[in-house]
Amino acid sequence: MTYDLILGDYAYSSWSLRGWLLLDRFGLPYRTRLLDFNASASVGEQLVDLVLAPARTVPTLVTPEGAIVSDSLAIAEELASRHPDAGIWPVDPRARATARTLAAEMHSGFAALRTACPMNLRTAYAGATPSEAVLADLARIETLWNHARATCIPSGPWLCGDYSAADVFFAPVAARIAGYGLPVSDAARAYVAAHLADPAFRRWRAMGLVRGATLAQYARPDATIPWPGPAPRPARRIDTGTPENAACAYSGRPVTHLMQSEGRVFGFCNAFCRDKTAADPDAWPAFTALRDNA
C-alpha cells in the first residue's frame, strides 16, 4: 500500500510540509511528485493537468485505490483511520482530543502570521518587526501550546505526549518563529528548537535548499542571518574521487555522483541524492548508517 503525495515547493510550501510529515514522520509508504511554484500555470491548473481534479491545492494525497484527498487535515484523519497504530493521533482520549483541537485551529486560523511571515526555509531574517495582529496570533499560539502541555503533561518536547499530528500542524509555525526571530517565551522557543532539530524536519529543509528556484516573492527586506537550527556537518559535492561505497545508500544503484565530508568520499546514484545529503548529512538515516558503520 503506497500513497502518491503531490507537493509544492520544499522551501516555501508550509501546507506541503504538513502533508509530507504525516507520511514520512510516521513511517508510511509514499511516492512524491512536486509541482512548480515558479511555473506560469497555477497549482490548481497543474493539478488539473495531472487529472487530479477536484484538488486545487497541495498537498494532495492519492490513495492506493485512487481516492483524492486534497486537504492536510483530511489527510491526517484519513491516514489515522487507515493506520490506527501509526501514532498520528495520541492514544490517550484526553490527549487525542486536545491534539485534534490544536490541529484544527492551526488549520483554519492565524491569517496575520501566515501573511506577514511566509515560510522560507532557505533563509532567516533579523530585525523583523511584527504587527499587532501577528503578536496577537503569537499570543494565541502560546496559549494553545501551554494548554496542551498543562493538559497532556508530556515527558518530552512535543505538545500532547509523543510526536503527533498536532506537532505536524505546528511545524511550519515553528519555522516561521525561527526564520523571522519572532518574540516568544522561553517555553515556546524550546518547542521551536525541538522542531528545528527533528530529523524529519531537517530532511525536508535539506531538500528545500537544493531543489527548486529561490523565489523572489518570498524575500523580505530585512537583513539575513544563518538558519537558527542545528549547524549541519560539513559536506560538499565533488566531481572526482574514489567513493567508499559502490552503491547508493538510498536506492542501491551504482554511484554516479560524489560528495566529500570530513575527508571521506561517498557516492550517490543521482545529483539530488548527493545534494540533499550534502545539505545536512546527519538528517538521513540511510546515509548515516553507511557512514558510521563503515
TrEMBL record:
Biological process, per Gene Ontology: glutathione metabolic process; L-phenylalanine catabolic process
GST N-terminal domain location: 3-87
Protein keywords: Transferase
Gene Ontology terms for molecular function: glutathione transferase activity; maleylacetoacetate isomerase activity
InterPro entries in the cross-refs: Glutathione-S-Trfase_C_sf, Glutathione_S-Trfase_N, Thioredoxin-like_sf
Gene3D superfamilies for the chain: 1.20.1050.10, Glutaredoxin (3.40.30.10)
Highest rank taxon of the organism: Bacteria
One Pfam family linked to the record: GST_N_2
Cited PANTHER family: MALEYLACETOACETATE ISOMERASE
Protein name: Glutathione S-transferase
